[in-house]
Amino acid sequence: MGFTAARPLCHGCTQGEAGSAQAPNSRMSAIVQFENVGLRYGLDSETLSDVSFSLASGGFYFLTGASGAGKTSLLKLLYLAQRPSRGVIRLFGEDVVTLPRKRLPGFRRRIGVVFQDFRLVPHLSVYDNIALPLRVAGMEEGEIDAPVSEMLNWVGLGDRGQARPATLSGGEQQRVAIARAVIGRPEILVADEPTGNVDADMARRLLTLFEALNRLGTTIVVATHDLPLMTQVGGAQMMKLDKGRLSDPTGSLRYPPKPQVAG
Amino acid sequence: MAGPDRRAAAAARHRLLPEGRVAGPMPWIIAIMMFLTVLSAAAGLGLGAAVKAMGADLAGRATVQIVEADAQQRDRLSASVAAVLRKVAYVRAVNPVAAAALADQIRPWLGQDAASGDLPIPALIDIELTPGQTDAKVDRLRRQLAAVSPKIRLEPHAAFLAPLAGLLSALGWLAGGIVLLMALATGAVVVLAARAAHDSHRGTIDVLHLMGATDVQIARLFQRRIGLDALFGGALGFTVALLVIVLLGARLLATGSELLSAIHLPWTSWAVLAALPIGCVLLAMLAARWTVLRSLGRLL
């Protein structure tokens, strides 16, 4: 699965720095904007400091950095599990920091999350786990079966629908987590170390799933420190966190994957 | 959505929390509390009914005593007092108590000598006043009879049994208080159970929360499960309490005592008792909803 469409760029990065031929910035809209965001847990020093960036709708982004650099914290802010201590975060054009709490579920439904530890619901079958976002969104039961079956087949688990998560291998659980994250056709998919628990072959296959989803228009944000993995996605961009700061954001495409121009 | 589809959707939603009881002992605790609550409520209602019946029975009744040692004078005075009483407009009934009946009543205490005539037993006349303003009528009648003879005394029946009625009434209020305390305790048990359930299902709740489930959606899951637990416990406790009440009622009737037989439950009281398990379920669901919404409110 390769890219066939023009890829957006990280806002704030120049074309030259991006090092790849992409769609012009003027045609992109920022789906995520962080402005001077800081995050502090309790009285500790800031986990994230002065983080500013914006992500274009339909982009594919890798977030990298050493362990403890703040990747998971940044993702938590992105999927609305945490409010920042300071700064502004805009999702889908709205400031979510000051957004009333009761409006957050609507935003969360537009974001798919693949957790590092999968967080599958252990007493539910694979089928019910994948159907969860649709049921949360209030979809009628009769309309659920088709997309869930399709998704099961898409992740290669068509015959494991009634299995419990505990009976699945790590890779299979990972695929269920991905299927659950994407079944609601989220506008943003956030994945925290999605390849951390799988072998290289499975990692490549998972990435292929993300690319396919990205081609459908979903903005992908993947936190990883797997550099070889990043080089496999054409047009993807990299943000690097270092001790809570987004280091050299304009040079974040220092490891640009081979550009794949729309053809 | 068609019926079967709606049922399937509901079943799927209900599966979001693990099947089985959310907090093991909760239904049993609720059963015990419901048992005690129904018994307390039945006691309160029964005693209330007894006090009411006693009040209605005694209101407007009084006994005129003619305390005269000489039997002949006593009989004469008794006849003239009865004649006076019959002329009073607000005296509805005048019933002189026969000497034999009086002797029968005091025989258990005084033995056969009671009827010998050696003992100066006062003559009694039971009277019934017209309804309303009983105290004022008794006062007026007392003055009227005092004018006839200073040896005449008037004793309203309510005065005899006022301490007993007061005791029964106090017991009734105590039972009502126990019902209220039980309701509070039930609410507290449910709050604790809901908190425990919330904590033990924290992982699932977090996932649902991050998928965009609203607080109300999540609270409904707990509300339903705790409601079912309360329904089970409430029905069990109510059924056992009902059996005990029926058995106790039979024992009370078997005593043959007029006073104890006055402790009965009218149909309105049975309706109140039947509403208790329903109230328990509603209380449990509300407490669970409040607790879970409050816990979720602490999340972003």
TrEMBL record, chain B:
It is found in: Cell membrane. The keyword Electron transport does not apply. Keywords: Cell cycle, Cell division, Cell membrane, Membrane, Transmembrane, Transmembrane helix. The keyword Transmembrane helix applies. It holds the Pfam family FtsX. Residues 178-294 form the ABC3 transporter permease C-terminal domain. The lineage of its organism: Bacteria, Pseudomonadati, Pseudomonadota, Alphaproteobacteria, Sphingomonadales. The chain crosses the membrane at residues 28-51, 170-194, 230-250, 270-292. InterPro entries: ABC3_permease_C (IPR003838), FtsX (IPR004513). It is a multi-pass membrane protein. It comes from the Bacteria. It comes from Sphingobium chungbukense. GO terms for biological process: cell division. GO terms for cellular component: cell division site; plasma membrane. This is Cell division protein. PANTHER family: CELL DIVISION PROTEIN FTSX.
